[in-house]
Amino acid sequence: MTISATQTIRIDLHCHSTASDGMLSPGDVVRRAANNGVTHLALTDHDTTDGLAEARQAAQESGITLINGIELSCLWRSLTIHIVGLGFDNADSAWTEALTGQAQNRWQRAHMIDERLRKLKVNDLLGKATHEAGGDVPGRPHFARVLVSEGVVKDSAQAFKRYLGAGKVGDVKACWPSLETVVGWIRAAGGIAVVAHPRKYKMTATKLRALMKDFAAAGGQGMEVLTSGQSSGDLGFLAELCRREGYWASQGSDFHFPGPSWCELGRLPGVLPDGLEPVWQHLPGIQAGT
Question: What is the pTM of this model?
Fold first, then answer.
């Protein structure tokens, strides 16, 4: 399908479901997006595509165009970076094998979090966190929910502040593959690699530019210029970096759960600035027309 110049579209290329650390099922994410006026959606769960089949069925029923998506974790200079993959062949055998390895990494990380939090004396913490994740690999948000339900903390924010946030005992760094490896997986499966929420890594401008240069050298093509929780200054800086270096510009809400208006499906803090090349012009099925 080609988007005509007169067609009203709303594109969200970053969101999560219960297949990873979101609170809504893949189908409910799609239906919520449709209710919010989203016309083109990528479900980008962390290191898994298990939610895509359910999401695709809901998309067909809701009239939304669903793009294959994922958010892969990787390492760059010992820092964990998230790379969004878009438009890949989810049936590619090498791709499937790579995701199996990522799942093993996530399970290893979950067991380590469980071990580190044993001093809290929550019976079967890992099992309860896995239940919160719908039987899939639990992440820190799932452990946080268990700590709330067990009365260890009053809410998830306190769970992260005391036990699960950056630098705390439950902040376990998994044995993620390198940036180059992850970008290679996405490209080999026919997809587009995009650096997710660049300003959330709290890097200096110089370090972010270095990341983006290494990313491009590895075959990466895009950057999220517009996402939730960023300032107008962030938008201007990322747009200029994208424009100067020739990266394709992406956008997405990074939706995880209902509630906060600032990270709602299809609700972005502005529009892509002029002079940028949207990543969706290179995705099969949603190229812009005239």
Answer: 0.87
